[in-house]
Design brief:
Layout (H helix, E strand, L loop, with lengths): L1 H6 L17 E5 L4 E9 L8 H24 L4 H4 L3 E8 L2 E11 L2 E6 L4 E2 L6 H32 L4 H6 L2
Parallel strand pairs: 2-3
Antiparallel strand pairs: 1-2, 3-4, 4-5, 4-6
Length: 170
């Protein structure tokens, strides 16, 4: 949706609406229909020179940039609010998973960060496989908490009088 919004920003009423990038999964706030993250997946991973890996690796930053731009526009470009926003992404290739984030560093500069840790989830049962899987679950939980906290920050900007409802849901 964020990529389509960017493409249709200058669209005239008699023109057909364009579609944005096709992403495999979107994380969004239901009440606001606002995207805060993306998931990109591939069936297998053949290496860093694999065509699918290269395409997905370039698609994620562009998609997250469009989502961040929508969030920035939604808070009316207020500097204090904009500097606290982040969007999240997950790259999932075969049995490998990597987390990504994007935030604004100031001005028109955004930082796209891919976690250096790539989690390989073995399809065979072993002690090391269980340890890796538990580390992977911890990473997912950390990103879920970060996502939730940034959502609270965003919603407190958008609905300053209704922020008490958010804390009661914890």
């Amino acid at each position: 949706m964020a990529s389509a919004n960017r493409k249709n920003r200058t669209r005239l009423t008699d023109e057909r609406k364009q579609t944005g990038r096709k992403i495999d999964g979107i994380i969004y706030i239901i009440d606001r229909l606002l995207e805060i993250g993306a998931i990109e997946a591939a069936r297998s991973f053949m290496g860093v020179s694999d065509r699918k890996y290269l395409l997905e690796k370039f698609k994620m930053p562009k998609t997250l940039r469009d989502m961040l731009a929508d969030m920035i526009r939604d808070v009316d470009y207020e500097e204090e609010k904009v500097n606290k926003l982040q969007v999240f992404g997950i790259l999932h290739f075969g049995l490998r998973v990597q987390a990504t984030r994007m935030w604004r560093a100031g001005g028109s500069i955004t930082i796209f960060y891919k976690d250096p840790k790539v989690y390989y989830l073995s399809n065979k049962f072993s002690v090391e496989g269980v340890k890796t899987f538990l580390r992977f679950l911890a990473m997912i939980y950390q990103y879920k908490v970060k996502c939730y906290l940034y959502t609270l920050v965003y919603l407190s900007f958008s609905f300053p009088n209704h922020s008490y409802r958010l804390y009661r849901s914890l």
